[in-house]
Amino acid sequence: MASVRQVQITFDCANPERVARFWCEVLGYVVPPPPAGFDTWDEFDRSLPPERQGAAFACGDPSGAGPRLFFQRVPEGKVVKNRVHLDVRVGTGLVGEERLAALQAECARLVALGAVRVRVLQSDGYDESCIVMQDIEGNEFCLD
Length: 144
Prior knowledge:
- This protein is α/β, with parallel strands linked by helices and 144 residues long.
- It folds into two domains: 8-73, no CATH class; 86-143, no CATH class.
- It has helices at 16-27, 41-46, 96-112; strands spanning 8-13, 56-59, 68-73, 86-88, 116-121, 130-134, 140-143.
- Strands 4-7-6-5 form a four-stranded mixed sheet, covered by helices on one side. A three-stranded mixed sheet has the order 1-3-2, covered by helices on one side.
- A hairpin with an 8-residue loop joins strand 2 (56-59) and strand 3.
- The radius of gyration is 17 Å and the shape is globular.
């Protein structure tokens, strides 16, 4: 029988720390303590070779229930739609106008953090409404 494995979600991006801190705000995640022997992540980063400085950053669910998010610097910019995206579940259990109001409120909070609202997908009798968004580097995600 297969065992349950932990999942880490990795983002390719231009500025790992900036994108990680955005997702901390979105999800209520936290930046873990720096490695042993370092007082801050900046101190740790300065200890790396110049080409590795600022190349990666991570954050995680303070409760330990959600997956760790890892952000790695890549040289190329985002060109096409994500093949995988996150659904940020803010409307679970809500339907109709109540759901849409909860999604719109969270959308406004995230836009203030730098996210972009792409479009609202209205309830169609089969699926409930959701809002397609982009993070601060253009990665798509949904408020669901």
